[in-house]
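Dock heme C; give full complex structure.
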Amino acid sequence: MLGNKSIKAALLVSVLGLVGMTLSTQASAACNLVKTTDGSPLGVKASDTDTPQAKQFLDTCVNPYTKAYAKDAEAAKAGKKKFGYYSCTQCHGPNGGGQVGPSITDSTWQYSKHVTDKGLFETIAGGSNGGMFAWHQQLGNPENLNTDDILKIVAWLRTQYKGGGETPWMN
Ligand code: HEC
């Protein structure tokens, strides 16, 4: 039988959980992601299942995978795998070099903000006005990508960059 004590304990745990959620949601507002389509708030929120890397990005706008993958080609393959799994390859080619969709590995960016990981994330997550859907699972189909998946893809795309010149995402 459930004693009064364990009910109280369960209540306490759920209250603590709520407080924790509120705190993490507040913290996640720090990056202020906006839609590429109209500049309004993107609406991607931290979730309980987010990885530490995803939480860090939502807090700071820094994609921790970018520097990690630059040093570790083996680890970067995780991003390439996601790029194939979610059929990005159908429009952008197997290595992001472009097909029906534009190249993502040259210095010609569809939107100037794509030189930052925040900007690239915003276009992939929320779509664009020029023919890209919103790919983030919180903005449409729950089978789609989560924050961590998109960060891994962005970081892998950076390792494929062949455009020369400045690479601000490494700063
Ligand atoms: C149906 C075709 C199609 C698919 C599938 C697709 N894209 Fe795109 N993508 C486009 C088009 C078209 C654009 C150009 C959009 C614009 O200019 O507004 C684009 C643009 C982009 C850009 C900006 C490129 C640049 O040079 O600035 C990125 C990054 C991107 N896509 C990533 C992805 C990822 C990641 C996936 C898979 C989750 C994906 N795309 C799937 C068609 C597609």
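Observed: The chain has one domain: 4-170.
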